[in-house]
């Protein structure tokens, strides 16, 4: 995009409030050819996170802005963020340092995965959202915002045990966050809703006769629906270890695993089942 007197505010100031604007000052001269070629190759017009604005200093408006910024030679690159210069490159540094400079203003793989997770969450596709949020969190476990998003999606997907794992034992910074406090409250409410009289009744029946397949299947199914999938798998797997030929238990066990896309328990218990089988 070329800088003109009419679009200065729109493409430089306003645009930099939303994403990084690489404001490139140049002229039609051999010393600018390499920088011009590198910038145009690296930043496309449809880049969602960076825009390239070309300012030919032979134009009066570009020349005036270059002077305001204290530029004395071209080629020069000024990165604009939130309406102000964030950093500058000049001369040969534009080509040599361009990749690392662009990297600073592009989202990480973790950020992109979280963006996908949020899109799935908005659609109500919580299982798909959980897969993306888990991948994002594993790529950057230190990013608290992603951790909280992952925990929130776990609660919505009724993966309450994983939500507990993420929210238990927070550090000082996390414990002071209102978002964290809200999620703890949401998890508490989800657990209260899951602890229904029906589940308590099934639990009592199961404890009285843990080898009764019919009771164990009903109890495990209820636990799964309430978000306690690890406990449900444990109950069913205990029966399979006793009798692998118990088809109703095996079917319920596999049905439960098939609903757990993105949950590490899925791989763990599939591996345990294959070990029993082979």
Summed up:
With 278 residues, this protein is of the alpha+beta class. The chain has 15 helices and four strands. The chain has three domains: 8-105, Glutaredoxin; 109-194, Tetratricopeptide repeat domain (Serine Threonine Protein Phosphatase 5, Tetratricopeptide repeat, Alpha Horseshoe); 197-277, Tetratricopeptide repeat domain (Serine Threonine Protein Phosphatase 5, Tetratricopeptide repeat, Alpha Horseshoe).
Would you tell me which CATH topology of the largest domain applies? Answer: Glutaredoxin
CATH class category label of the largest domain: Alpha Beta
Shape: elongated
SSE class: alpha+beta
CATH superfamily of the largest domain: Glutaredoxin
Query: What is the average of the pLDDT values?
Result: 91
Instruction: Give, in order, the helices and strands.
Output: HEHEHEEHHHHHHHHHHHH
Radius of gyration of CA atoms, rounded to a whole number = 28 Å
DSSP strand (E) fraction?
Answer: 5-15%
- Number of helical runs? 15
**CATH architecture assignment of the largest domain:** 3-Layer(aba) Sandwich
Largest sheet: 4 strands, mixed
- Report strand order across the widest sheet: 2-1-3-4
Number of domains: 3
Q: CA-to-CA gap between the ends?
A: 63 Å
The poorly predicted ranges are none
- Percent range of helical residues: 55-70%
Total beta-strand segments:
4
């Amino acid at each position: 995009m070329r800088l003109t007197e009419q679009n200065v505010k729109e493409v430089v100031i306003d645009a930099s409030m939303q994403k990084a604007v690489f404001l490139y000052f140049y002229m039609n001269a051999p010393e600018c050819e390499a920088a011009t070629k590198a910038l145009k190759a690296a930043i496309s017009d449809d880049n969602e996170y960076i825009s390239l604005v070309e300012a030919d200093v032979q134009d009066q408006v570009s020349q005036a802005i270059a002077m305001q910024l204290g530029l004395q030679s071209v080629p020069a690159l000024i990165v604009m963020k939130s309406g102000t210069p964030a950093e500058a490159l000049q001369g040969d540094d534009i080509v040599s340092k361009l990749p690392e400079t662009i990297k600073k203003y592009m989202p990480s793989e973790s950020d992109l995965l979280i963006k996908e997770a949020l899109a799935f969450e908005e659609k109500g596709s919580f299982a798909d959202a959980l897969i993306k949020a888990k991948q994002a969190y594993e790529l950057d476990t230190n990013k608290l915002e992603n951790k909280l998003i992952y925990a929130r999606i776990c609660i919505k997907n009724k993966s309450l045990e994983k939500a507990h794992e993420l929210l238990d034992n927070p550090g000082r910074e996390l414990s002071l966050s209102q978002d964290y406090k809200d999620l703890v409250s949401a998890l508490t409410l989800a657990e209260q809703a899951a602890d229904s009289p029906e589940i308590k009744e099934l639990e009592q029946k199961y404890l009285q006769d843990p080898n009764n397949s019919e009771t164990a299947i009903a109890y495990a199914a209820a636990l799964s629906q309430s978000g306690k999938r690890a406990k449900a798998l444990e109950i069913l797997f205990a029966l399979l270890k006793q009798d692998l030929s118990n088809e109703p238990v095996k079917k319920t066990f596999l049905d439960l695993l098939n609903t757990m896309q993105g949950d590490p328990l899925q791989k763990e218990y599939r591996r345990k089942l294959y070990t029993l089988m082979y």
